[in-house]
What we know:
Elements: E1 2-6, H1 7-17, E2 32-38, E3 41-47, E4 51-58, E5 60-63, E6 65-70, H2 71-80, E7 85-91, E8 96-101, E9 104-109, E10 128-131, H3 132-142, E11 157-163, E12 166-172, E13 176-183, E14 190-196, H4 197-206, E15 211-217, E16 220-225, E17 228-233, E18 252-257, H5 258-269, E19 277-283, E20 286-293, E21 297-309, E22 312-317, H6 318-327, E23 332-337, E24 344-348, E25 354-358
Helix pairs in contact: 1-2, 3-4, 5-6
Amino acid sequence: MRIKVSQEELNSAVSIALRAIxxxxxxxxxxxxxxxxxEGKLNISATDLDITLHCSIxxxxxxxxxxxxxxxxxxxxxxSLPSSMVDLSVxxxxxxxxxxxxxxxxxxxxxxxxDYPQLPESDMKGAIRLSGxxxxxxxxxxxxAVGRDEARPTLGGVLFTANGEKMKMVSTDSYRLAVKExxxxxxxxxxxxxxxxRAVEELGKLTGEDSISMNVGDGQVFYKAxxxxxxxRLIEGQFPKYEQLLPNEWATRVRFDKEMMIxxxxxxxxxxxxxxxxxxxxxxxxxxxxxxxxxxxSADDEVRCTTEGEKxxxxxxxxxxxxGLTAVRGSEAYIEMSSPIKPAVIKSTDKQxxxxxxxxxxxx
Length: 364
């Protein structure tokens, strides 16, 4: 294998692919990146067997071939090179890769190519197409509510359902629930699947202006954005029946300036940054906030608002509340409540495609 490629393009491709590498893998070969050169392209792949990333770039090919190179060392070497053309070659007879750029030169021992696992190949025929920008925002809105409890694996993923021109993404950790609906740009069939939160986070890093293609097969989901492809295993099991948790009515609805409320919550959370509980009293045109920590102190703030319905006193985990507020689009938002012990709903005043449900904390 022998190619010439710009340092910027090579570094970008290597950086993307290497995000699939897991430092916890017990298989040494999975610490390597597979490089394949053919048809004028360099294809870089990495996997931890749960997530696989492929990235392709056009290169000047002097000799086709393939090799597996230690991923971390490859990434650090390429990143450190000057912004110029890079010569990369592999001699499979002596098991060494050579990387040169201007006066810099690396010789790196390769890993056994025959030990590298067979990577899944996707078929994008009939794939669902999505706007990269729309999908990126949707991921930002649902990812914070993904569960971290390994004893409940289905909560560790995002539920994707699609039917026709609509797709829903749902996540919950049992303390909050995020539901986002987006439009698709075309595709065939219906789907319902649970994608691991880590894979969804990685997908969010890949999205941009490119259209995203999404397809499912053999217990895996495939995403393609430009010359980058992400493949992830699916989570088996039944996602909670979240629809029954969504309130049909409210007793109190408050409209407020989102940024003003975010600032107020952040200020009172200073008292106890990691375990802050915010007490909220809603009465007329004022929302009053209080946070108290034993042996530390207390903090109070308030925000003007417009209230419909009854006066209410309720408490929330401050960070969960902030996550919901920052996920909602627009300058103003609603909080809808039916009682101090039932879930509250945060939503935009102008867009009805996103709901963030948060469980209150019982006041003593």
